[in-house]
Fold this protein.
Amino acid sequence: MTGLKYENNLVKLPGEGRRGPGGALMSGELVPECNVYLEYSRIWDMPIPNPIEMSHAHSYDEIVLNIGSDPDNPEILGGEIEAYMGSEKQVTDKTSAVFIPKNVEHGPVKWTKFERPHIQMSIVLGTGDLKEALPVGRKTSD
């Protein structure tokens, strides 16, 4: 494709053969007009470090998707994830989505079981800039 008006709006999966975690699939850096930050991770094994994130909050709303990869049982995640929103513990082993309102503390996010590869996507609404999405002082397990 060359010379097409919107050809630069298509972002192909970064890192041929990359297995995640973490990688922007859509951002204002990749597509300058974009005001959404989207990370895509293929979870191929028990994540390291685990938990992958500690407690933190964003100045923007976030949606996290956990998607199973078994075509015969798409509702089964292939692992079990324990996460906190505020002080509430949430545990899932199903394909799911969670809406995290801006300024709400969430995390840590920890896998307690791994059975098969699956996908995790994080979508921050309202900014295409990861630096804006992750406030200074973010706590991670790195």
Observations:
- Residues 60 and 102 are 4 Å apart (CA to CA).
- The domain at 20-132 is CATH 2.60.120.10 (Jelly Rolls).
- Residues 14-21, 136-142 have pLDDT under 50 and may be disordered.
- The first strand starts at residue 24 and ends at 26.
